Amino acid sequence: MSTRIERDSLGEKAVPAGALYGIQTQRAVENFPISGLRALPAFTDAVIAIKRSAALVHRHTGRLDGTLADAIVRAADEVLAGHHRDQFVVDVFQAGAGTSHNMNCNEVLANRANELLGTPRGSYAPVHPNDHVNMAQSTNDVIPTAIRLAALTTLPALLRAVESLAECFLAKGRQFDHVLKAGRTHLQDATPIRLGQEFAAYGRTLTRHREKLVEAARWLRALPIGGTAVGTGLNAEPQYPGLLVAQLRTLTGLDVEEATDRVQAMQSMGDLVTISGALRAYAIDLNKIASDIRLLASGPRTGLAEIRLPPVQPGSSIMPGKVNPSIAEMVNQVCLQVVGFDTTVALASEAGQLELNVMMPVIAHDLLFAIAILTTATRQFEIACVAGIEADEAQCAYWLERSPALVTALAPTIGYAAAARLAQEAVATGRPVKDLIREKGLLAAGDLERVLDLRAMTDLGVPRGTPLPGAG
Prior knowledge:
The chain folds into three domains: 3-135, Fumarase/aspartase (N-terminal domain) (Fumarase C, Chain B, domain 1); 143-227 and 257-390, Fumarase/aspartase (Central domain) (Fumarase C, Chain A, domain 2); 402-458, Ribonucleotide Reductase Protein R1, domain 1, CATH 1.10.40. It is 56% helix and 7% strand. The chain contains 17 helices and eight strands. The chain has helices at residues 23-31, 41-61, 66-80, 99-116, 129-133, 139-175, 195-217, 240-252, 262-267, 270-296, 326-350, 360-384, 393-401, 411-414, 416-429, 433-440, 448-451, and strands spanning 3-8, 11-16, 180-185, 188-194, 222-223, 257-258, 307-308, 390-391. The strands form four sheets. Strands 1-2 form a two-stranded antiparallel sheet. The longest helix is centred in the N-terminal third of the chain and has 37 residues, at 139-175. It starts with a strand and ends in a 21-residue tail after the last helix.
């Protein structure tokens, strides 16, 4: 590979001749061959959007020559259009605060801007990565601003996915509203419930999480850009933060605003912890729902088998004909990963000292990756699993008729103790509760079907019959 020699304050280093990045990026590549993971596109886009907006502001104020500013903007537009993506090469796990990624972006834009102006890569003239692309900026205000922008940019796709999955569950709730089944608590038989009630509850749980995510995202709107090194704004013009935020609003369409206290916004990662915590809460409930779906579909002969999932792939390399709840299992794994990401975000946010949190690179990656995989997993859960779920009404009825918990409806009439004895006998003999009631004459004529009206038992109410003499 041919190289070019570049120089920085530490000396000289060979850089690939065709690279748009430069010496500081090359040092980071050599220093951090850690994971092979690169910055997520949304995060890179956010940093580039900041550089583009800054160039326009500095051209407006006269601080940056218009020709140089326009070249930076053109270079940024190329990146935002999807070009030069292979030039962002710094590992996710890098030096603190994200200086390496910030300089990677600065060098790519400077080299491409210079090319557009007719000078070769590595010349850094007339556009310099620090003096011009990074003008009035610091890694310390760029990176926390970029994390917020990237999260706000990617979150709407997750919100749409959650809303769509919620609507799918609610539709299934309506479709299955007539299907009566045994409820279960402690994984033991409980009073009846409608399959539609279970599914509608899943949908409403998801709707509530969407609302929580929207609320948490509001805390991300305040941007610390303009704080430069420690939040005080050294080397930034007084009008710069407001003008830059206005440019970002125009470019991204996001309803962002200036942070009222840039020192605070750069010291604390609390707002990122808030949105990460909302993602965790959603993942925990989504995980529970996916596990419930797996349990309800267990079988087909030795499990509950109350619902049938659409088959998406053969389930075993050794057992012919086996079909597994593969999509729900994938959702489980994604949710567990998101919980791990949130733990990392929380610990990393606490690990900042004084005016800077140097753990921002891992915060950025884990927060944005959590949004990304939750989005795609939520979509796939709906498309490849939930939308195709069918109820096995016969199996639901089979388990319900044999549930000893049906005696609960008798308690107001014959008393708790007598009902408990009846439940124990039903379990011991394997006979349905209704058969035992008829045999023992525990309800007056005509009361049995009314008291043990299974549909009525799934709604508010106190079923009562006429107790026989000595009942209870």
